[in-house]
Amino acid sequence: xxxxxxxxxxxxxxxxxxxxxxxxxxxxxxxxxxxxxxxxxxxxxxxxxxxxxxxxxxxxxxxxxxxxxxxxxxxxxxxxxxxxxxxxxxxxxxxxxxxxxxxxxxxxxxxxxxxxxxxxxxxxxxxxxxxxxxxxxxxxxxxxxxxxxxxxxxxxxxxxxxxxxxxxxxxxxxxxxxxxxxxxxxxxxxxxxxxxxxxxxxxxxxxxxxxxxxxxxxxxxxxxxxxxxxxxxxxxxxxxxxxxxxxxxxxxxxxxxxxxxxxxxxxxxxxxxxxxxxxxxxxxxxxxxxxxxxxxxxxxxxxxxxxxxxxxxxxxxxxxxxxxxxxxxxxxxxxxxxxxxxxxxxxxxxxxxxxxxxxxxxxxxxx
Length: 367
Fold this sequence. Notes:
Layout: H1 8-17, H2 20-37, H3 39-42, E1 64-70, H4 83-86, E2 94-102, E3 106-111, E4 121-125, H5 134-141, E5 142-147, H6 158-194, H7 196-210, H8 214-225, H9 229-237, H10 241-255, H11 259-266, H12 271-279, H13 284-308, H14 319-326, H15 336-362
Antiparallel strand pairs: 1-2, 1-5, 2-3, 3-4
Helix pairs in contact: 1-15, 2-6, 2-15, 6-7, 6-9, 6-10, 6-13, 7-10, 8-9, 9-13, 10-13, 11-12, 13-14, 13-15, 14-15
């Protein structure tokens, strides 16, 4: 009977698949990523950043329903492929109303208000609508709007902003980890392979960056680059490469003494080829584990910056800024406005930490 050998990669994959929490966390991240990418196809409020709100609907409880009258516009709204990814411009104005009725040539309605004394009675001529028959106006311009998670302090759909806010957290993770891998792997490989003065110079830079508190360094870089979406991504990425560089350096120092590396040098292979094709592929296991942990750390750092007002700027929704906008409601009887984005952040960070722990166990050849 022929022996069937199993490669280390296949063995690691089997170990990973046997861990329930690791697999569950992996699929949670995958599903959330697809939801984030298709956010504007899923969310009720399809305007850019889900920023369509009305102050009369501020801080409504989950399950709130209101009748809305959509005002006609001169230019019809056209959905394009671009609008499915970044949302559409807010052209139509939907007015919350409490009741309405028709006369011969007009529609009369009462605007929605928490206080009936402040409600306003207004009217529009039927001629301003494309369809002038009352039953057509009811079908095309009057709708029941349902808020699954209620509204925020600005009267915006809370569920829509929560889903779109997941884009920021996932994007900061991917960009920051990619940037930290590019810098950390490059410098760590050079320091470990060449040693000497090159190693001393790179390790001096690593130790200098390592000695500065991460949050203070991120704030300093953010203030230097300016407030904004991409500036935060770069700032977070520039602070997470040091751990990657230290681990890669140690791995390269160990691997470069192996016999197959000596054979590669004897065959006349260039240093670049030896590093890229023979050393780094055998050093990636611990780097993958660190990347999962850095992903979680990047999400927390970005949320902290957004809470301080240095992260994604208004009106871009992020879970950190949503907590900042609504944390006062913890004492005002509506704590879910701050707790829901906090719980979403907790689940995402926990998922990446569980994935990292599972990868650590799966890639451990001693087990």
